[in-house]
Amino acid sequence: MHVFETILALLLGATILSLFARRMNIPYPTLLALGGALIAFIPGAPRLDLPPDLILALFVAPVLLDAAYDASLRDLRRNWAAVLSLVLVAVALTTVTVAFTARQLLPDLPWAAAFALGALLAPPDAVAALAVMRQVDPPHRIRVVLEGESLLNDASALLIYRLAVGAVAAGSFSVTGAMPTFALVVLGSIVVGWLLARPVGLLIGRLQDAPSSVIFQFIITFGVWLAAERLGLSGVVTIVVFGLSVARRSVSPMPAHLRVPSFAIWETVTVVLNVLAFTLIGLQLRPILDALSGPERLRFVGMALIILAVVIAVRIAWVMTYHAGLVLTTRLLGGDPADSPTSAPTTSAPSAKAGFVVGWSGMRGIVTLAAALALPAGFPHRDFIQFTAFVVVLGTLVIQGLTLRPLLRLLRLPRDLTIQTELSLARQAALKAAMKELADDDTPAAARLRLEYAEALGEARRGGDPRDSADNVLRRRLVTASRVAIDDLRTSGTIGDDAFRRAEEELDWLELSARPATTRN
Questions:
Q1: Please, what are the domains in the chain?
Q2: Which residue of 29, 99, 288, 493 lies most exposed, with the fewest beta carbons within 10 A?
């Protein structure tokens, strides 16, 4: 019961902090991590000692699948060079630079342990990046690159981390010997994720009630992750490929009456997991500090801050170098640098401002902390590595997370209308198809619908939202009156609760179909 009560208390406190963060227009992951750190210093504060493997599966798998399902494969293809430069080059550079810096600070730190530290600090966290990006609303291309990076960088970093930890146990490390293993793991993860998508999609299509469908979806999510781990593959790559493949089916296997509640539940669960994950980051401060003496803490703080600065600087340096190289190549060879994360959304010329935003968006999170906590007992300088991981995670969340929104305002990047433009095209295509279907229908109902769809098409062509039409405004007013009427019937005892709930559900769907554009997330 103590664990259950602790989780409830943390969820309540985290929910209040999240509301406060949104009211103050600051990313809630930063405030949650700080809140958890403050709670950790309270005498008798709760502790949640979760196994590192469980942390990764519980907090990373569903968030990654949700992000992969929503990801735009077209946009990822257009920005593949930029994404891979961050997933591979930025991770490798950070790993190597942190390893060399740690060796300078601690000369007796084995090289394999130094590379393990560099690898676990290298990847900006998917949970942190997605949570912050969805709140600060950067230009579309920047968001595509950062979300694409967050889907895959954990895989490259964790593979290096595992090789380094294994090298500590074996007493030796060979880059050339590790490369075949690295390639085999990545290829195997891609194949397994792709192969699992089709049968799972067929099974989901056979489920016709929402509870069974949602439960099955979560079982499959964790099952895919655990299967990949048992096979020695990358859970990150497997779950991302699986999510991308399921989402790209030509026809959705899930009908609307299942999709609406499923999406709502997934959104709620991912928010709850984010809340717990970032609160857990702060709560880990106390047990890490308890393992250190007073002089060690001061010494470790100084070294950890140096490494924090290195982690931030390496990412910015690489992104700006990539930007400069792209500009030079474009000038010498010509061509369109549209796949650059630094290109402005409304022009073809690269933008150094956008590049700096990408470089500054390097928040670390739960993956870094879980990897540090997973180090085996007796690992060289384990306390230093864990303390440094916490400082880097909290430092990037505070320094970069709190300043990202002001940075975007300061740089005044051009407004990006990519999504609005494409949404208008989609609306027009859907409305035209509906009107074409009604063309040969001479019934009064078809005539009424043709008028309604023609009005909606005109609104879409003007760049407006059909949900703001006069018809929908009137519908929303009528729904309100209808709700009062059926509530009066229930209150008077004329109808029972079963009939009331059915009628209420019908009004809910009518209201959703006519909801104003201002309520869209």
A1: 2-416 (1.20.1530.20), 419-519 (no CATH)
A2: 493
